[in-house]
Amino acid sequence: MNNKELLDAAKQVSKNAYAKYSDFQVGACALYESGKTYTGCNVENASYGLCLCAERNAISTAIAQGETSRLTAVAIFSPKTKLCWPCGACRQWFSEFEQGQIIKVILEGKDGNPVEYSIDDVIPNRFELIK
Ligand code: THU
Description:
4 helices; globular; alpha+beta
């Protein structure tokens, strides 16, 4: 899928968001080296701290479906704003699955077209577990 198609898939799944507390719907579409894509939306909870972000929902779905190839891109969409940047926790999740390569982070730009950033743009100097 190209960037536009990934962003469209994120837009589509944002319609399923369970965002009754924030009214801020988010959709994400994760692309893997296998060519497969997985989508997720945010899922909120009355205990606010338990809210699940769209990006981590999409990546969790990929893992649950048995995906083992490298995460290559994540598109993120919210009908509430252009440039819906991922939160810090989701950025660290992207980092987990890059396997030493570059992940593209695709957002809806101000003009409505997809814009692309690298993992280093969104999470420079990220945490790595060194034993
Ligand atoms: N949210 C996401 O789904 N992804 C992010 O990267 C940031 C925030 C959701 C969580 C919550 O349901 C709503 O947006 C408002 O914070």
